[in-house]
Each structure stands twice: as structure tokens, then as C-alpha cells.
């Protein structure tokens, strides 16, 4: 098995028996996970591999948060403590955590009925309200990290800062990035269908930015603790009910309404790019009821996330700068969404704020 974890040392620390099987879990772009069966049960073994999220102190903070949320009845899967009481094991310079295995499956918005979309919005609202209760205010100066607009929540992260209400993207910087990416596309030979789509979307996006450059939003609204990566691969369902919210690597302090909008843009995007607005409306209404967020807060968040999408090219940067093609299948819908959203801006705002 590539990147085989040090099972002997880990299972000894967690008193989890002897290994029977250990299989990699495919989902996830940043860290590594394994489905582990031992003589004492079934577990999810997580290797915190991504340098931006592998700090043991930050992982321990995430673990404390999930345990506190579990105590409130939020569906999460807190890690198991080791013999020493710690939930993070550092072996060979790498950080690992052991979680109970949760039977369930991932469901995207197309697999959810209208009532289930409302349940999803309420669930995210419960997460935000719960984090506000269980995370001490003094911790807000540690671990703040920009939330991620990527459809899988997994672009390369920027460093955390004291002010979580980050400046919005500067279109001049985006124009320079577009020119650089177009040059990289031209240099890629022989050209393939991905190159053709990338070139088309880059030229199209530059024209949209030239048209809308004056609509750059100000800093974000009120901040609070957020999951930071709320998308279909991080919510497990058992039958029609959410069984667990997983992968809390991006826990941080950010504008909460923006996380609600980002999550909807991932769950409810259709393959050709548009959002399923009736489902968005059911989701947003439930989120607002649960959190008390106002329509104006959601409308402002829609504007900021729209601008974020218009200026974001993380998938193309992975492909052309890093030679990493794992996110390529998501690019067609994600790139079409920014164009559709710009055309249907008022309808999207209405769906979130009505």
C-alpha cells in the first residue's frame, strides 16, 4: 500500500487491538484516510498530511470542538483518545488521529428532496450556533483561517490572519493571473480538451471581470466559528438523515453567512453550472431560521462569494502550476457556475434572502 501508516505504533498508542485490514479511502484532496479493521472494531484512521493543517495543536483544537459539539447532540465523529489521553499521535514526524467508523454515504444536492435541503440548511445553522456556544472567545485569535470557495473546499490555503474578514480579490491581480494561466495553457502541448475549455473560460472570465470590476465588495460581515469545508464529501448520511459531519481541518473564524452561501454553491450546483434555486431557497430559509441571520446578511454574503468565484482559479492553478489533476472533473461545472451566477445574480440573491 502506498504511504502505508505505521499501524503497529499507532494501534499501540490507541489501544485499538491488532490490525486485520487497512484500506485507503479515496475521497479527500489534502489529507489521507484509511478504513481500518482491527481485533477491537472498525475505525477511520486519518493522516494529517497537508502542511497547512497538520499542526498538532490545531488538530487538538478541532478535536475539542467536535467533542463539545457531540455533547450538544450535533452529529459528528469525535476522535478516540490514546492511552495518554491525547487524541493526536505524532509518529515519524506525522500526525494521526483515530475516529470511529461511521457507516453512511455522501449525498449531493441532486439526491436531496426539498425537505432534506431544509434539513441541511438547519444542520449548518446548528453547527454555527453550536460552535458559538462551545468555542471560547479567547480562541478566536488562534486558528483563524480563510474559508475556501473551492467546490471541494480543497484549494491551497492562505495563511491565517488576525482579521478573518479578509479583503476581497483585487481584479488587477486576477487579470495578471489570467494572463499567466493563458500562457501556461498555450505552452501545454499537445493541447487537449481540458486546455480548450480552460482557455475558453479564462478569456470569458476576463471579459466578465472587465465588465464588473467596479462591483468589488468590501470586507465581510460578522464573523464566528465555522466548519470551513462544508460540502457533500464531508457530510455522511444514513438513509435520509445526516449521520456525521467530518473533516474539521478548516475550522476557523470567518463570516458565517459566507460559509452558508459557499456550501449551497457546492451542494446545489448542477452539472452544466446553474444552481438549483428552489433547493437553495429551502436550504437558506432553514439556515436563517436556525441562526437568526437576516436576509441582508445573506444578500451581502452572496455578493462576496459571487465575487470570490469570479476571481478564483484554484483548479487551473493546481492543473497548470502543480501538475495536479485530481480536481479536473469538477472544473466544467465550477467554471460554468461563475458565468451563470453573473447572469442570474438577482435570482440567486432572491433565493438566499427570500
What does this structure look like?
- The chain is 44% helix and 14% strand.
- The chain is of the alpha+beta class and 354 residues long.
- The protein has 2 domains: 94 residues, 2-Layer Sandwich (Phosphorylase Kinase, domain 1); 186 residues, Alpha-Beta Complex (Aminoglycoside 3'-phosphotransferase, Chain: A, domain 2).
- It is globular and about 60 Å long.
Structural class of the secondary elements? alpha+beta
The gyration radius over C-alpha positions equals 21 Å
Largest sheet: 5 strands, antiparallel
Low-confidence stretches: 140-162
Q: Average the pLDDT over all residues and give the rounded result.
A: 90
Given the structure, what is the number of helices?
11
Walk across the major sheet and give the strand order: 1-2-3-5-4
Q: Architecture of the largest domain, CATH level 2?
A: Alpha-Beta Complex
Kindly state the percentage of residues in helix. Answer: 40-55%
The CATH class of the largest domain is Alpha Beta
Q: Which percent range describes the beta-strand content?
A: 5-15%
CATH superfamily of the largest domain: Aminoglycoside phosphotransferase (APH), C-terminal lobe
Order of helices and strands: HEEEHEEHHHEEEEHHHHHH
Coarse shape: globular
CATH topology of the largest domain: Aminoglycoside 3'-phosphotransferase, Chain: A, domain 2
Total domain count: 2
N- and C-termini, Cα separation: 51 Å
Q: Work out the number of β strands.
A: 9
Amino acid at each position: 500500500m502506498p504511504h502505508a501508516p505505521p499501524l503497529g505504533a499507532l494501534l499501540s498508542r490507541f489501544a485499538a487491538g491488532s490490525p486485520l485490514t487497512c484500506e485507503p479511502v479515496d475521497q479527500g484532496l489534502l489529507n489521507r484516510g484509511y478504513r481500518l479493521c482491527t481485533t477491537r472494531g472498525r475505525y477511520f484512521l486519518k493522516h494529517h498530511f497537508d502542511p497547512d493543517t497538520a499542526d498538532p495543536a490545531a488538530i487538538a483544537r478541532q478535536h475539542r470542538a467536535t467533542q463539545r459539539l457531540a455533547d450538544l447532540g450535533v452529529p459528528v465523529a469525535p476522535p478516540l483518545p490514546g492511552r495518554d489521553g491525547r487524541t493526536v499521535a505524532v509518529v515519524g514526524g506525522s500526525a494521526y488521529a483515530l475516529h470511529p467508523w461511521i457507516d453512511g454515504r455522501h449525498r449531493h444536492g441532486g439526491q436531496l428532496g426539498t425537505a432534506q435541503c431544509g434539513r441541511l440548511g438547519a444542520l449548518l445553522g446548528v453547527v454555527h450556533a453550536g460552535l458559538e456556544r462551545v468555542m471560547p472567545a479567547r480562541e478566536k485569535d488562534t486558528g483563524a483561517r480563510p474559508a475556501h470557495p473551492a467546490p471541494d473546499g480543497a484549494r491551497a490555503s492562505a495563511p491565517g490572519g488576525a482579521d478573518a474578514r479578509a479583503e476581497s480579490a483585487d481584479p488587477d491581480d486576477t487579470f495578471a493571473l489570467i494572463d499567466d494561466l493563458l500562457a501556461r495553457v498555450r505552452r501545454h502541448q499537445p493541447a487537449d480538451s481540458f486546455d480548450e475549455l480552460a482557455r475558453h473560460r479564462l478569456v470569458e472570465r476576463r471579459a466578465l471581470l472587465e465588465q464588473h470590476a467596479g462591483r468589488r465588495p468590501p470586507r465581510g460581515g460578522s464573523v464566528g466559528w465555522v466548519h470551513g469545508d462544508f460540502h457533500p464529501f464531508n457530510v455522511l448520511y444514513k438513509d435520509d438523515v445526516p449521520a456525521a459531519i467530518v473533516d474539521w481541518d478548516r475550522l476557523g473564524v470567518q463570516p458565517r453567512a459566507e460559509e452558508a452561501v459557499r456550501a449551497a454553491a457546492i451542494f446545489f450546483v448542477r452539472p452544466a453550472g446553474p444552481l438549483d434555486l428552489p433547493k437553495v431557497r429551502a436550504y437558506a430559509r432553514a439556515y436563517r431560521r436556525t441562526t437568526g441571520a437576516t436576509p441582508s446578511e445573506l444578500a451581502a454574503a452572496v455578493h462576496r462569494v459571487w465575487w470570490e468565484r469570479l476571481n478564483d482559479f484554484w483548479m487551473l492553478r493546481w492543473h497548470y502550476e502543480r501538475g495536479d489533476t485530481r480536481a479536473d472533473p469538477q472544473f466544467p461545472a465550477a467554471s460554468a457556475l461563475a458565468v451563470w451566477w453573473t447572469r442570474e445574480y438577482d435570482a440567486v440573491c432572491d433565493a438566499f434572502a427570500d
